Amino acid sequence: MQILENFKGYLQTDGYVTYDVLDKGPIVILTHCMAHGRRMFNEALDNDNDRASYALNEIQKLRV
Question: Is the pTM of this model over 0.70?
Fold first, then answer.
């Protein structure tokens, strides 16, 4: 990841495993995209509506 070799700070990624090499110290702090996490709860609505709905409602509060 030569393009990020001098980068310091928060880096938002989609959770792709390749970026894990950047999360080895305090210089780069990985944050992940909530859309990808939210999608899993959306897909779980048919399986466990109560818990998936609860999670989706909590995630919605982050947008405010």
Answer: no
Rounded distance between C-alpha atoms, residue 37 and residue 40, angstroms: 6
Alpha-helix residue ranges (DSSP H) falling in the chain: 34-43, 49-61
- 36: left (phi > 0), else alpha (psi -120 to 50), else beta? alpha
Long-range contacts of 2-11 (CB under 8 A, 24+ apart): 4/28
Break the chain into its structural domains and give their ranges: 8-61
Judge whether 39 and 33 are in contact, CB under 8 Å.
no
Below-50 pLDDT ranges, the chain: none
Q: How many residues does the chain have?
A: 64
The three-class DSSP label of residue 57 is: helix
